[in-house]
Every structure is written in structure tokens, then in C-alpha cells.
Design a protein that fits this description.
The protein has 6 helices and 51 strands. It is mainly beta. About 5% of the residues lie in helices and about 55% in strands. It has a 24-stranded antiparallel barrel. Strands 41, 44, 45, 46, 47, 48, 49, 50 and 51 form a 9-stranded mixed β-sheet that branches. Strands 3-2-1-5-4 form a 5-stranded mixed β-sheet, with no helix packed on it.
């Protein structure tokens, strides 16, 4: 028998013929075939005879690279970049040629300046635009093999938007849905110092989307057998977009914008620019928190007294780079709690140089409400207004007012882009505070900030200095002074902070430092972190050093050297040596690995010895399931034992049911492949569609074109998805739905014979019930078909006359299993009844 090695998996031409056959015919025809009127069929041997006459028909093959007139779903590429996938009409142009109809509406969506090229009457009456005739240098071509239309338009004829900008007309509110993020960590253990102890931490981030409104609320529950129960709720608000002003309206509990003043928690109303609506170059910033854990430790990050993040990390260096920090500046308090109960803290100030704006660009905020402190003390009124505007010559002016009945602050600043020398800003703040003791304090604060990314790979992400006079108060200090007659006069005097990073080849270096001192006291806070990571012959080396000095927490320092040796299969061995502030040393050896087909199961095993606390060990395992992230760990030493578990995930409730997934970001997607389970999504590794065909994409970029791609590699052989790619533009916080159509089909190897025992001609077309070409007859009458499961007959055509056509039945009784992916059918092709072409 003639062998066909899974040919339905090979690329095919538009007519269904394997491209290898097309290329073979082209090679036989020779390089001049494009100009030849005929093809010499004697080069090909006839396969049998019979009533069909000469058993060869190449007309279908010759036309196989073209498509007929009609509607087709095609990919559209503009100047070699993917634009969209849409259904276009293809019209007959004569001489066997078809052309895509490009409507004025489509071209306007693509940014073509048709208003300058056509009058209003033409824009409203033209059905299709001849782009090449209207725009000099424009061209349109069609790739039938990939069903793609390539459009070339000179840049001068296109609208020029900033890179990454998407018109508000394309923003999608998404669907009405409810969502919930959950993160649960629990630990239970025993230590000689504290006895038995259990801890439970639960973070909930829930919301509801209705129309263009987004309702959100964060909650935090902590249960400790020693400290008791603690409940916090923050960021409970409703929000909607204001596209005309590139901003948002927020009602409820949230944080003020931190680009001019430090970010403050408030309860009230806020109008503010959303920089995500602007080009990519104006996006926000969140800091990276780094440190070293001596045991399997709990790391918690707080901002303004509110807990933002909590997780357990294995022994060794750790890095938290997925914080969703509230506001653009302030102080993050990092708490590292070791498994034996020891606790270390440090403060990481952060800020951005995001107050620089392009010429004629602007940013604003207006907040009215009350101060919403985490300690639930007095809630004085709060009002804030800020504005930044881009001036010519790369200058930016910014300023704002902040205050209430006992505090007023006014800030004015100027920023400058220095080109190759980086960027700098200088501002001054005048503040007046009325205290509880009827004393009025006034003062000034001056700030200098600098940022620069060097061509060598070094970047100064932030460097700044702020000096405040003795009478200056920030808002939090003013609230405390107003409510307490015994106000501590140790207000902030100066603060220095800097962050430097360098990446070159296989070496990375970072340096973070900060220092803050106070009036009328010798109190000083210092924090220094230094890290170097490099690689030599697949072995990674790391050096980490930190030193902190804070009066209330004492002094601490660490120096750690680590080595990581790959062992293959995604596993590695790790060695580390740490010197502590008291001169003692810790040694640690560990093994990390991955398991499973996709590597979604990871595990860590560590053993260590400390001159201070003796020997200890830990083991942990984490699994990235399609519906959540799961983890568990054990650790123990000479004076303690501890077991911990962690669970993180999300759920989205929508009109058709409930979908579970990984931890959600601010903006998310919902994939729907109708009635098709276990389909992967390339945007969200580890997730697959559930029994109803739904899957969650945890992270999407708001106000940007997001490409959603299905992973069809492991699809059932009876399932076909014609287009596994979609493009969506979500608003911030939206749940956008991307739907895909899946068709059930049967893969059939059809062996055809004519009623006289011969075979249909080689190259004859095979049509389904919709008269669409689904295959071409090969040698020996074999045809490979992909047909809808309900189809039970096909038509074979090698000419227009009735005697040049026949039909064959594909009844289930005639099917023979050949492999797991296709079945074989032996069928006799029955003649057509008459020249009218009517199938019996």
C-alpha cells in the first residue's frame, strides 16, 4: 500500500494539497514555468486507467495556490507587523485572480490618513479602496498558504502615535464578572524559647466588574497563638475610567498619587491621571526587595502600616520583584522572621523619577476626603491637588497643594531631561503646622533627584537627597503633632537614597543605600545592600552584603557567598557561606530540582550549620497546578521544629460559571474554547481550559494590545481550531473575554475506486457538502480528508461535465481503524445522475 506518514500535520496549500507536492510540480516545471502557458504532463506517469480516461488532472493543482471569491478569516499585517485577524471579502478580478476588499473603515482603523486622500463623499460611498492607486508606494499582497494579507503603506500616510499608544476607541470594558485572589500561608511549630506556636495568614483581594465600573477590596487576616487575631481591610473602592482626560475616578478607600507628595491612605474621592493610558515610556515603578534568609523564613512587606505581601522563602538569598506597591514613593518595611522565631527588619525607601513629562503632556490628581491611617486613630480631613506639565526643551514643571484646617503644604518643582547625562529634578516645599499646644511651626523641605541609564549597562535607578528645616512637618507628623501636646520634636532632617544596578554579559551588580537622620536627636537610620552575581562555565556565583543601623531595631550585618552548580534536568546544587554581625559563620548546602513533564513541580532540600544555633535542615515542595499554586515545607533545628503550607490562586465568576486559576493581576483575561477541555494557553503557562472550555489569563497589560495564543500542540486529533490567536485591548481592571471556535472533525484516509474498478484521476478535487475543497486525489485513488463529524459523503470532480464527477458515501460501517488519529474508508465513487450536476 502507498504510505502516507501523517500528511495532515504537514503545511498545506489553500486548496488542501500538501505543499511538498506543489513544490515538486514547480521543480519539474522549471524556473520558467511562471511564463509557460501549459505544463507537459508527460513528465508524470499515469496511475491506472478506467472510464475516467487519461488518469491525470492537474488543473486543480495548478490553481491550488489561489482561493475563490468569498468571505475568509485572514490575518492582516501592516508594514510587517501583525494588526488584527478579521473576515475580509475577496472579489473576482478576472483571469483567475482575486483581491481583498479593503473598506475605508478598515483602513481608518489601521491609521491610514484617508481623510487627506479622499473626499467625504468617497469615504462614505466607496465599497473598496484601491490602496495602490490612492497612495504612492502602497501595496497589497495575499499569502494563500497562511491566509494572510500583507499591506504596505508609507509612513507618511499613517497616523503617528507614540509607541505603545492605543486609541481609547479600542479599549474594552470586558465582561461583568466577580473575581477573588486568595493567598493562605500557615505554619505550626515548637521552639525552646516560645513553646508551641501556630500562625495563619490569609490575604483576600476581591472585586466585581459591572459595566465600566470596578469595585475592589483588600482584606488581611492574621491569627497567631501568641499575639492573637488581627484583621485589616484596605483599598475598598469603586473606580471607572475617564478616557477624555486620560484619568480615573476613584470612590472609597485608596491611596493618593505619590508622584509629587508621599502617598497617603485616604477615604473619599479622587480624580487622577492613569499613566497606563499614555505611551509605554510613562509607566510606573515598583521596587525590588532583596535579602538573605538563614532558615526557611517568612518575609512580610508593609507599606504605610498595611501588609502588602507575605511569603515563605527557602534558606539563602531571595528576591521579591512582583510587588504591587501603592503609590509612587514612600517607605517599605521588610520583616524577615526565621523559622526559630528570630526577627530582622529593615526599611527600604523608594521613589521614582516619574515626574518628568514629554512636551505638552500633563498629569493631574485631585483628592478630597479624610486621612485613613492603619492604626485607626483620628481621621482628619485631607485635600490634595497636583499637576505636572511638559515644557519645551525637555523641562517639566510640577507642583501641588496638600492640607486641611491645621496643615498646609505647597510644593513647586522643576525637572530636566539632560540627555546623555540623565535626568534631574529639584523641588521645594513650604509647610505650616498648627499643633495641639497652639504652637505654629513653619519650615521648608528641598529635594534633589537624579536618574540615568548608561550605555555600559549601568543604571542609576534613583538617587536623591532631601533636606528639611527644623520647623517642617510632613502630613503624618502634622497629624500626630495636632493630636498630641507632647509631640516628639525629632522630625526628619535629611534623607539620602540611591539605587545602582549594572548588567554586563553574565555579571549583574546592584547597590542600594539609604540614610535618614532627625532634628534634636542623634538617631540615624542606615541601610546598605550590595550584590554581585556572575557565571563561569555554567557555575553561578553570588556575593551579598547588607548592613543596617536603626536605633529601634539595633544593628545588623550580613555577608554571604553562594555557589550554584547545575546538575541537569533543571536541578542544581547550592552552597553558601554567611558571616553574621557577631562574627559567627553559617554554612548551608542545598539541592533544587524540578519534576513533571512541564516542570511545574519544584522542590528544595537544604541542610545548614550555624555557630550560633547549631544544625538545621529544611525541605519544601511547590506545585503549579492549573487551578492554583500549592506548597508545603518542613524545617527543624536543635531548638525548634516547624511545618508550613501555602496556597495561592484565584477564581472568576462569570455568566457561564466559575473558572479557577493562578493569582490574578490587576487586569486579566478569560479564554473560552466552546465545549473543549484541556486546551493550554501560551500566555499563562500551566493553565488549561476546564470542562466548560474556560481558562484564566492572570496578567494582561491595560490599554495595550494583548495577543492571546492557544497552545494547540496537545489537542485531541478530532478537534480543529482554525485560528488560535486573538487580540484584545482591556481597560485597567477589566476581565476581557477571548472566544475561540473549535470544530470536531474526523481524519479519514479514503481509498476511492470508480464503478469500473479504476481510480479517479490524480489531482482531481474532493469537495464536501458545502462545495468547499477538502482534498486532492493522490496516487492509487487515495485521499486524506478532514471532515466535520456529521459529514457522510463527498464529491470528486476532475471537470465540469457530469461524467467528470462522482460521489462517494462515507458511512460509518465502512470505517476501519488504522491508527489513533485516523481511520480508513474503502468507497466506490458513484457517477453523477446528469449534467445538471445533481448528486443522488
Amino acid at each position: 500500500m502507498f504510505e502516507l506518514p501523517c500528511p495532515w500535520r504537514a503545511p498545506r496549500s489553500a486548496g488542501g494539497l500538501p505543499l511538498a507536492v506543489v513544490f515538486t510540480l514547480a521543480a519539474v516545471a522549471g524556473p520558467g514555468s511562471a511564463h509557460s502557458a501549459t505544463f507537459d504532463s508527460s513528465f508524470m506517469q499515469s496511475f491506472g486507467g478506467g472510464s475516467a480516461g487519461p488518469n491525470l488532472d492537474l488543473e486543480a493543482i495548478a490553481q491550488s495556490t489561489q482561493i475563490g471569491p468569498g468571505l475568509y478569516s485572514v490575518s492582516i499585517r501592516l508594514n510587517q507587523s501583525f494588526f488584527d485577524r478579521r473576515e475580509l471579502r475577496f472579489d473576482d478580478q478576472g483571469a483567475g485572480e482575486v483581491a481583498a476588499c479593503l473598506t475605508p473603515a478598515l483602513l481608518l482603523d489601521m491609521g491610514v490618513k484617508l481623510e487627506a486622500l479622499l473626499d467625504k463623499a468617497q469615504l462614505t460611498t466607496l465599497d473598496c479602496v484601491d490602496l495602490a492607486a490612492v497612495i504612492e508606494g502602497a501595496a497589497v499582497s495575499f499569502d494563500a498558504a497562511y491566509l494572510a494579507v500583507d499591506i504596505i503603506v508609507p509612513q507618511i500616510a499613517l497616523q503617528r502615535d507614540a509607541v505603545g499608544y492605543v486609541s481609547p476607541s479600542e479599549w474594552d470594558d470586558g465582561i461583568n464578572a466577580g473575581m477573588l485572589n486568595y493567598q493562605f500561608v500557615a505554619a505550626q511549630g515548637h521552639s525552646d524559647d516560645q513553646g508551641s506556636n501556630s500562625q495563619y495568614n490569609l490575604y483576600l483581594n476581591g472585586g466585581l466588574n459591572l459595566g465600566g465600573w470596578r469595585l475592589r477590596s483588600n482584606a488581611y487576616l492574621s491569627q497567631d497563638s501568641v499575639l492573637g487575631r488581627q484583621w485589616q481591610r484596605s483599598n475598598t473602592y469603586a473606580q471607572t475610567d475617564l478616557p477624555a482626560t486620560f484619568g480615573t475616578l476613584t470612590l472609597g478607600d485608596s491611596f493618593t498619587v505619590g508622584d509629587v507628595f508621599d502617598s497617603l491612605p485616604f477615604r473619599g474621592v479622587q480624580l487622577a491621571t492613569d499613566m497606563g493610558m499614555w505611551p509605554d515610556s510613562l509607566q510606573g515603578y515598583a521596587p525590588v526587595v532583596r535579602g538573605v534568609a538563614e532558615t526557611r523564613a517568612k518575609v512580610e512587606v508593609l507599606h504605610n502600616g498595611y501588609s502588602l505581601y507575605s511569603t515563605y522563602v527557602p534558606p539563602g538569598p531571595f528576591e521579591i520583584d512582583d510587588l504591587n506597591a501603592a503609590g509612587g514613593s514612600g517607605d517599605l518595611e521588610v520583616i524577615i522572621t526565621e523559622a526559630d522565631g528570630r526577627e530582622r527588619r529593615f526599611t527600604q525607601p523608594y521613589a521614582t523619577l516619574g515626574n518628568l513629562m514629554r512636551e505638552k503632556a500633563w498629569r493631574y490628581s485631585l483628592t478630597l476626603g479624610e486621612y485613613n491611617a492603619a492604626d485607626e486613630g483620628d481621621r482628619p480631613k485631607l485635600g490634595q491637588a497636583t499637576l505636572a506639565y511638559g515644557l519645551p526643551a525637555d523641562y517639566t514643571v510640577y507642583g501641588g497643594v496638600l492640607g486641611n484646617d491645621f496643615y498646609q503644604a505647597t510644593l513647586l518643582g522643576l525637572g530636566k531631561n539632560l540627555g546623555h547625562f540623565g535626568a534631574v529634578s529639584l523641588d521645594a516645599t513650604q509647610a505650616r503646622t498648627d499643633g495641639a499646644d497652639s504652637r505654629r511651626d513653619t519650615g521648608q523641605s528641598y529635594g534633589l533627584r537624579y536618574g540615568k541609564a548608561f550605555a555600559t549597562g549601568t543604571s542609576v535607578r534613583f538617587a536623591g537627597y532631601r533636606y528639611s528645616t527644623e520647623g517642617y512637618r510632613d502630613f503624618a507628623e502634622a497629624v500626630w503633632q495636632h493630636d498630641n501636646a507632647t509631640f516628639d520634636r525629632a522630625t526628619k532632617r535629611s534623607r539620602v537614597q540611591a539605587s545602582v544596578a549594572h548588567n554586563f554579559a553574565s555579571t549583574a551588580f546592584y547597590l542600594n543605600l539609604s540614610q535618614q537622620d532627625y532634628w534634636n536627636t542623634s538617631r540615624r537610620e542606615r541601610q546598605l545592600q550590595l550584590g554581585v552575581n556572575t557565571q563561569y562555565r555554567s557555575v553561578s556565583y553570588g556575593l551579598y552584603a547588607s548592613k543596617s543601623l536603626v536605633d529601634s531595631f539595633g544593628q545588623s550585618s550580613q555577608i554571604a557567598l553562594s555557589v550554584s552548580l547545575p546538575l541537569g534536568g533543571g536541578s542544581s546544587a547550592n552552597l553558601a557561606l554567611t558571616r553574621n554581625d557577631d562574627g559567627s559563620y553559617d554554612e548551608r548546602a542545598g539541592f533544587r530540582g524540578r519534576a513533571g513533564r512541564d516542570g511545574h513541580l519544584s522542590y528544595n532540600i537544604d541542610a545548614s550549620h550555624s555557630e550560633r544555633s547549631g544544625s538545621s535542615g529544611s525541605a519544601s515542595v511547590n506545585y503549579l497546578a492549573p487551578f492554583a499554586q500549592l506548597g508545603a515545607g518542613l524545617s527543624g533545628g536543635e531548638r525548634y521544629e516547624q511545618a508550613s503550607i501555602n496556597l495561592a490562586g484565584s477564581l472568576i465568576a462569570h455568566a457561564d460559571g466559575l473558572a479557577l486559576g493562578h493569582t490574578l493581576g490587576e487586569t486579566m483575561g478569560l479564554v473560552h474554547v466552546a465545549d473543549t477541555a484541556d486546551v493550554g494557553v501560551l500566555n499563562a503557562p500551566g493553565t488549561r481550559t476546564n470542562a466548560d472550555g474556560y481558562s484564566v489569563i492572570p496578567y494582561m497589560t491595560p490599554y495595550r494590545k494583548n495577543r492571546v495564543s492557544l497552545d494547540t500542540q496537545d489537542l485531541d486529533h478530532n478537534v480543529d481550531i482554525d485560528n488560535g490567536v486573538a487580540q484584545v485591548v482591556p481597560r485597567r481592571g477589566a476581565v476581557v473575554k477571548a472566544s475561540f471556535e473549535a470544530k470536531r472533525s474526523e481524519k479519514i484516509l479514503l481509498n476511492l475506486r470508480l464503478v469500473d474498478g479504476g481510480h479517479p484521476p490524480f489531482g482531481a478535487q474532493v469537495l464536501d457538502g458545502e462545495q468547499q475543497s477538502v482534498g486532492v486525489v493522490g496516487p492509487g485513488g487515495q485521499v486524506l480528508l478532514t471532515l466535520p463529524e456529521a459529514s457522510n459523503q463527498v464529491r470528486v470532480r476532475w471537470g465540469k461535465a457530469a461524467h467528470q464527477q462522482c460521489w462517494a458515501s462515507l458511512e460509518a460501517a465502512g470505517l476501519e481503524p488504522v491508527s489513533d488519529t485516523y481511520r480508513q474508508v474503502q468507497a466506490t465513487c458513484q457517477p453523477i445522475a446528469d449534467d445538471a450536476g445533481v448528486t443522488p
